[in-house]
Design brief:
Helix content: 55-70%
Shape: globular
Radius of gyration: 20 Å
Structural class: mainly alpha
Oligomer: single chain
Order of helices and strands: HHHHHH
């Protein structure tokens, strides 16, 4: 659980808020699980939201998602390096573009709704695309004592 923000009791002063955050976290985990099988439904963002909810409500569930064999790397890469996988970026931008086109051509009766949607989606898309896709590679420092070369 390296680099994981610890839960403190002072942060969770309201019992109802704690239970609401736990329920919200599990709802996001369920949606993320559905996103694994349903094309077009993202997984990463729901796991990040679930981690946030668990970070503010349950140390046990926070540790579970952090150490999960499949979800853990996604969460740790976001938490430590703000990395969004390339597949998630492509999916996010594609879904935003399709949603914008659908709204513009089939739903909106004027340009107000598409303009408002573009004002939200363009910065969000830029943010997603400009995040790294891979965590920084660990630099292996080799000292002469660790070298296998003979002098």
């Amino acid at each position: 659980m390296d680099n994981m923000k610890p839960i403190t009791d002072a942060k969770i002063s309201n019992c109802w808020a704690r239970w609401a955050l736990i329920a919200f976290g599990w709802l996001n985990v369920i949606i993320a699980l559905v996103g694994i099988v349903v094309p077009g439904l993202p997984t990463t963002i729901f796991l990040i939201v679930a981690f946030w909810a668990f970070s503010n409500s349950s140390e046990r569930f926070q540790a579970w998602i952090w150490n999960h064999p499949k979800f853990g790397p996604i969460i740790r890469h976001w938490h430590n390096y703000r990395v969004i996988p390339k597949r998630a970026k492509i999916l996010a931008v594609t879904m935003m573009s399709l949603s914008f086109c659908y709204l513009t051509f089939f739903v909106a009766e004027s340009l107000v709704m598409p303009v408002l949607m573009a004002l939200v989606m363009v910065p969000a898309g830029i943010y997603v695309v400009t995040r790294d896709s891979l965590p920084p590679e660990e630099v292996l420092v080799s000292s002469p004592a660790n070298s296998n070369t003979a002098i």
